[in-house]
Amino acid sequence: MHFVSICHQHGCKLWNVSVLSILVLTACNVLLMLRLLHTECTNISADSVPKPHPPLPPLILDNVVISNVSPIFNVDPRLGRWDTRHTYKMIDHALVGTLFTELSESFSVCLATQTSLEKVHSLVQVAHHWNGPISAALFAAGDEEFSILQVRERVSFQLAFPKEKIPTTSLFVETSSHLDCTRPEASLGKLLKKRSPDIVRWRLRNPYPQNHMRNLARKNCQSPHVFLTDVDIIPSTNLADGLNNFFKTENCNALCAYVVPTYELDDRVQFPRNKTELVRLTGRGLARPFHHKVFIYNQFATNFSRWEQDKYINAVHVSHKVTNFEFLYEPFYVASDSVPPHDERFIGYGFTRNTQVYEMYVAGYEFFVLSPVFTIHWGLQHRKGRPSWRERQNTNNRKNFDQFKREVFARYHKDPLRMVAHQSKDNKLK
């Protein structure tokens, strides 16, 4: 392991090897692609880290140059496993951190997340707030993107490649670049520009396999419970510890899923330190329920008003039960790994998460909203900002849903939302 130190506002000092530093440095190494081991980082103080995101620990020692190092992901893509349709190749535990097993035994919940290269920078703040085990599924197309994804050890990373873009080599090609280590998103942008026009065009034409990646991340968790999120969903601070204590006393005798409310946050403000600050920001119009303007039904059943009115208690507890479940509900939740998998026929955007939650509901799962914990998505979203290709993908996935809901009905012999009954009535009217 190379020598790592952290530069703080008042000078540099050796970073203690704590759980938090392990996870933060791992995620940061992903983002800065320390496969490029000749990278030199500009010395910038924490004061210069741009708001609204809170300053994170600088990532690596300034001007450290390491040579003669093997690629971090030293794997053979030819030996991965195929998905059921032979479309994507997966590699489980391609890189397992030295503390991942220990953390999985001491924490009740593993955070499972997935990402492509474009959003991998969000993993910095995720790891900064989550000190438990993390299973991260990374998607790469071809040799160029795979080379960017060569990372340092510490977390459990899984890999996925599309059939037509499986890397042909794992050779380590040294590259030198001058990156600002305190600005991972900008540094990542510089690295992404190294991709050829051919691979960029391929990525634009082909949808991202969200459900494949979710299943890949979740199934490589080792803890009893999984908190499955998207990489740009940032957990509130100390969420892992709070959930760990919650599950020491929570004994659900039924099929239970625990919803962590998700809010959108204005880019001009700092990440809220607690629920009180978040509610205050909501009152000022600087935060609001996730997808409230884009598609309100996405999170409506969570009942944010009731959550905001729940008496503030530091300990994680159940605020209320979801009593108005409706189709298209897509909460981010914590549950055991026995929940139904995400259906991999849904590729890209649309009907990816809500179909899995719908199957849970048909199977008899109950949803309980937790407080005072929460998650944040940066930026207040508006429908006009959505690209046209998302709607095209949504339309394609909608075609698969008719068959999916019939299969769910056949599997559980239940139709609580009368989804199949309504379809049969519509067919008779045609």
What is the averaged pLDDT score?
Answer: 78
Radius of gyration: 22 Å
Strand order of the largest sheet: 4-5-8-7-6-10-16-12-17-15
- State the helical fraction: 25-40%
Determine the N-to-C terminus distance. Answer: 67 Å
The tally of domains stands at 2
Quote the beta fraction. Answer: 15-25%
Strand segment tally? 18
Give me the secondary-structure category: alpha/beta
Q: Count the helices. How many? A: 13
Question: So what's the overall shape?
Answer: globular
**Biggest sheet: strands, sense, closure?**
10 strands, mixed
Stretches where pLDDT falls below 50 for ≥5 residues?
1-70, 171-176, 425-430
Cofactor: Mn(2+)
Organism: Nesidiocoris tenuis
Main location: Golgi
Protein name: Beta-1,4-glucuronyltransferase 1
Please tell me about this protein's structure:
Pathway: Protein modification; protein glycosylation. By secondary structure, the protein is α/β, with parallel strands linked by helices. It folds into two domains: 206 residues, no CATH class; 187 residues, no CATH class. 32% of the residues lie in helices and 18% in strands. It contains 13 helices and 18 strands. The strands form four sheets. Strands 4-5-8-7-6-10-16-12-17-15 form a ten-stranded mixed beta sheet, sandwiched between helices. α1 runs antiparallel to α3 and α11 packs parallel to α12.
